[in-house]
Amino acid sequence: MKQKFITILLMLLPMLASAQTFIRTVDKKNFWSESSLDKILAMDEIPVNDSRRIIRIKKSDIVLLEDMEAGLKILQPDKINKIEPRAFNDNLESFLAKGKRVYIPLASSVTQQRWGARQLRELFEESDYWELVGCEDEADFILEYVFEEKGRDKANIVVTDRMGRGILYTTQLSANDWVPADAGKESAEKLFKYFFLKCVCKGKIKSKAKFIKNPSPKTFNCSYNVRIKL
What's the whole-model pTM score? Predict the structure, then answer.
């Protein structure tokens, strides 16, 4: 009986971690839909999650979509609020200051990766410290959730500027869980807490960051390492 239960649960796991779609509207509101990108493109009105209820929005009001598996689709390029890319100014405090615009890449073929990224999107939007935008062209910088399964599963945050320069990476934290989606979400919550809430928000980024003289793939090609402790 136990083996049968495990088999059924394993069959359900892909459904439990099914892809969902991020939606950004003309008026800069962000929503999540349980519909896939293909289904949304065939609809005139799309059901989305709005707090504790489901509402419908017109496809004509949508600027872009990012499916957790299929990737980014811009429906109205002329409505993208583009800003000029700015290179890192070697001042972490001003580069990551409150009010900056951040893009968090979402789509991935790896379950932990996409659910970790989604969790970070939701947490950063709730914090209202930075503005969560829908694509790189709207962002001051890029913040990535990075999942790695070499050895023991782990994850960290990597920040880059729009010019492709690695700015900082954090300590890697454990990202282990029997359910892959939960591994992504739980590790993202820890990274948010210890990097963002306890470091960035408290004005400790300068004191916590260690300068890297010779960035390399081992350091995610970043200029700074931010050590975080649980």
Answer: 0.89
Q: Within 13 Å of residue 110, how many CA atoms lie on the same side as its CB?
A: 16
Please name which of 158, 179, 184, 161 lies closest in space to residue 170, comparing C-alpha atoms. 158
Alpha-carbon distance of 86 to 84, in angstroms, equals 6
State the residue for tokens 């200051």: 97
Instruction: Spell out the residues 6+ positions from residue 114 whose beta carbon is closer than 8 angstroms to its own.
Output: 19, 68, 69, 106, 107, 108, 184
For CATH 2.30.30, list the domain ranges present in the chain.
Answer: 17-80
Chain region(s) in the chain for CATH 3.40.50: 81-230
Domain 81-230 has CATH 3.40.50: yes
Q: How far apart are CA 91 and CA 199, in angstroms?
A: 15
10-residue mean pLDDT series, the chain (230 residues): 40 48 94 93 92 91 95 96 93 96 96 96 94 96 95 94 96 94 97 97 95 95 92
Cα(122)–Cα(117) distance, rounded to whole angstroms? 9
Under 8 Å between Cβ of 69 and 53: no
Smallest CA-to-CA distance from 24 within 53, 66, 55 is with 66
> Which is it for strands 131-132 and 53-58: parallel, antiparallel or unpaired?
unpaired
CATH of range 17-80; options 2.30.30, 2.115.10, 2.40.50, 2.40.10: 2.30.30
- Among residues 147, 129, 106, the alpha carbon closest in space to that of 23 is found at 106
Least Cα distance to 116 among 127, 125, 104 occurs for 104
